[in-house]
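Hi F.,

I've been meaning to write this up properly since the lab meeting, where we talked about keeping a consistent format for the predictions we share between groups. The idea is simple: the sequence comes first, exactly as it goes in, then the structure tokens exactly as they come out, then a line or two of notes. No screenshots and no reformatting. I'm using this chain as the first example so we have something concrete to point to.
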Amino acid sequence: MPPTKRKRRSKHRGTAAGTIETRGRTGRRPTAEEKKKEDRAQARERRLSTPPTWINSSKRAAIAAALMFAFELVVSKGQALAAAAFAVLAFGLYVGLGYYMDLYLYRRRMRKKETGK
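Output, unedited:
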């Protein structure tokens, strides 16, 4: 009799309580590329599911204000006082706007996750 072409199925054992135990992982191991992709996805999910903080938005605003200061210093031909005033104003705006934008996006993401379940 010729051998069958079907792959063997992994066997399940039933217990007295009615649960089914399966053997350990029987498939192939994920490659390094697949593992890296999965880790990236988990890290992204973890990052996106943390609520926004004022500290993070102030760090981002400080970076943006420093870039704005350098840009304004170049554009205003060395007027450091005007560039500093503009950078302080930009920092104040960026902190508030950045925090509330992050909060809006976080709440929208959480609502979407709740309705998706």
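Notes:
Residues 53-117 form one domain.
Residues 11 and 45 are 34 Å apart (CA to CA).

If this format works for you, I'll send the rest the same way.

G.
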